[in-house]
Amino acid sequence: MKKIDKIEHEGIITEISDNFITVEIVNKSACAACHAKGVCVAGEEETRYVDVPYNISSLVEDYKVGDKVNLVLNQSLGVTAVFISYAVPLVIFILLLLILSNTGLSEPMVGLLSLAGVAVYYLFVFLFRDRLERIFTFSIEKIN
Q1: Cα torsion at 11, 12, 16, 22 (round to 10°)?
Q2: How far apart (Å, rounded) are the C-alpha atoms in residues 105 and 53?
Q3: 41: which residues sit within 8 A by CB, 6+ positions away?
Q4: What gap in Å lies between CA 9 and CA 26, rounded to an integer?
Q5: How far apart are CA 16 and CA 19, in angstroms?
Q6: Per residue of the chain (144 residues), what is the pLDDT tens digit?
Q7: Closest CA to 118 of 70, 143, 83, 86
Q8: Beta-strand (E) ranges in 17-67?
Q9: CA 113 to CA 86: how far, in whole Å?
């Protein structure tokens, strides 16, 4: 069985500035290829733009607007992103729910305080977004 060590998304270079190469990717839902997608709201596509710093991309001179490229992220970073985004908040919520339910507070208050704990966690993630952006950086590979 082949081990997947990187996550790739195909995109098109839309802009090249002094510090970044901007790549447009189109996220398609799982049913985007369905013949009924024209009448179904589940078959939506979403366009995203990703800035890739020059220092990550080797041979920047070879890239030009309109080139098809692959955005590449290491698999381990993808797993870490899922952990930070979903697993940690879930654990915080459950722990707060269990701890606060034994304090004698009312159930609505326990629920609100548990949600507030998760909100505080996401506030910290937001405050440290610059540091996280340096860790979770895409690189690009030209598609031949």
Answers
A1: -30
A2: 49
A3: none
A4: 9
A5: 8
A6: 555 677 788 888 888 887 788 888 877 655 555 655 555 555 556 788 888 877 654 555 578 888 888 888 776 777 888 899 999 999 999 999 999 999 989 999 999 999 999 999 999 999 998 888 777 777 777 777
A7: 86
A8: 20-28, 45-53
A9: 18
CATH class given for the domain over 6-142: mainly beta
CA atoms within 13 A on the CB side of 79: 6
- Rounded distance between C-alpha atoms, residue 17 and residue 116, angstroms: 40
Sign of the dihedral defined by the CA atoms of residues 122, 127, 131, 133, in that order: positive
Structure tokens at 141: 């590979």
